Amino acid sequence: MNHFPIFLALEGRRVLVIGGGDAAVAKLRLLLKSTGHINVVASDPAPEILAWAAEGHLTLHRREQSPGDALCCPIAYACHEDPARDAAALRMAAADGALVNVVDDLANSQFITPAIVDRDPVTVAIGTEGAAPVLARKIKADLEERLPASTGKLARIAKGFRRIAEALPMGAKRRAFWAEYYETAGPRAVEAGEDVEATLHGLLDTHLAAEARPGHVDLVGAGPGDPELLTLKARKALDRADVVIHDALVPDAVLELARREAVILSVGKRGFGPSTSQAEIDALIVEHARAGAHVVRLKGGDPTIFGRLDEEIEALEAAGVSYAVVPGITAASASVAAIAQSLTKRGRNGSVRLLTGHDVKGFADQDWHALSRPGEVAAIYMGKRAARWMQGRLLMHGAAPSTPVTLVENASRPDQRIHTATLADLAAATDDVAGPALILFGLAPRAAQVQTPAFEEAL
Ligand code: SAH
User: Fold this and answer.
1) What is the best residue among 417, 438, 439, 443 to mutate for testing ligand 1's pocket, by most ligand atoms within 8 Å of CB?
2) Residue pLDDT, tens place only, 315-346
3) Residues 354 and 441 in one domain
4) Quick check: is 375 in a domain?
5) Same domain, 191 and 246
6) Is the pLDDT of residue 52 over 80?
7) Does the pLDDT of residue 458 top 50, yes or no?
8) Which of 328, 355, 385 is the last residue of a domain?
9) Across the chain, what does the average pLDDT equal?
10) Residue 305, ligand 1, Cβ within 6 A
11) Range of 50's domain?
12) Does a structural domain hold residue 142?
């Protein structure tokens, strides 16, 4: 970049134009838009120059240039359109301390004037270092088209409004306000012939009201996957959501129910795979709620079951953000439904355990002894990897190897699969399971149960 672009403050300063022909007139047209004091030295000025002088737009000296004419001028234009005369003009003006542009002579000019798109106070300057004037003209034409005539007016009015807009906190909030003004509200007001300043006040009120509205977080259970297993409350929350922050377990079919304008953020967490840390998730929820958003924190199944709900609630409480918990159908419910069994059954089990196969420390220890008694039922979450280990524990504590075990994979989803096994072959049964799966310990599918030899014997 040989020519460094700057915007020169001309208010109260002199600019000298040397020469009075067409080139001078063309330059003057541009210079007269500025606030500088324009001086012209020309012994034979064009009629336009005479008229401008008569109207007081510039100061005309009807004579040849003399030393000192360019004193106190930061810039001067040599416009004789004659190389020898312009070279002399340049030398004289430069001796006065001005930077000199020789019209249409890039090589001899000390500065150049860019192509300009003028939407005062918005000015776009385009320069190509003389390499591609045609391209510069094309860019200028494109920009002229792109920037509506109202741009300048909008910017001018905005300038006077900047202090008032400081009522909005600096950063994203204030940027959103200005973006809406320049992109939609402002141009619309100009087009409709409305008072742009009144529009600005109205827009600011709207943004301030949104700012004052506190954010809220719904911690929502998305159910096991089938969108029809969402609660009505969950659907309503999704309808209102500004932001949806969801786990990997939540399928697209559920996410599609979110309000169309909602921002959907995935904080996927699957097994031991890559994930967003819990602290990052907490921070993300708080950040959006603090910005005034209605956040739906969407978790697979029921948020109160192996959902790390408490950590998120603690973060919200610490941040003073209001929240509500919307329960969902947990994987255990969907899984027993898939095999037409009950989680509890009179005469068989009066209690049921919801277990996790692994916790933060690795495989999770449980009361295997209690679970080994006949008739016990447990719904084991996140149990695939721990299957072999759990099998060993249970057998060691005396559970019958023939205890029925059912793996329900992708419960309630179109790709739901049911794997029947016994405790003896539990580990092997998990080999073939790719999706999220729930292990139902102590339960076999109803139909399969009818066919078990034990049952036949009892007949
Ligand atoms: N809060 C969730 C559980 C999260 S822990 C709930 O209430 O269901 C994640 C575990 O849930 C998975 O490892 C799997 O064991 C189980 N799971 C979730 N969705 C499932 C589904 N559709 N089918 C089977 N198991 C599922």
Assistant:
1) 438
2) 999 999 999 999 999 999 999 999 999 999 99
3) yes
4) yes
5) no
6) yes
7) no
8) 328
9) 92
10) yes
11) 14-113
12) no
In this prediction, residue 448 has a pLDDT band, given cuts at 50, 70 and 90, of low
pLDDT at 359 over 90: no
Q: CA angle, corner 359, sides to 358 and 365, nearest 5? A: 70
Residue 455 has pLDDT above 80, yes or no: no
* 365 Cβ contact partners less than 8 Å away, ≥ 6 residues apart: none
- CA 106 to ligand 1 centroid distance, Å: 72
**Same domain assignment for residues 238 and 322:** yes
Residue 241, C-beta contacts closer than 8 angstroms, at least 6 positions apart: 218, 258, 259, 262, 294, 295, 296
Q: How many domains does the chain have?
A: 4
269 CB within 6 A, ligand 1: no
> How far, in Å, CA of 254 to CA of 117, rounded?
49
Task: List 39's β-bridge partners, or say none.
Answer: 16, 59
- 407 CA → ligand 1 middle, Å: 12
CA distance readout (Å), 146 to 124, 142, 175, 187, 347? 12, 6, 21, 13, 78
Percent of the chain's residues with pLDDT above 90: 80
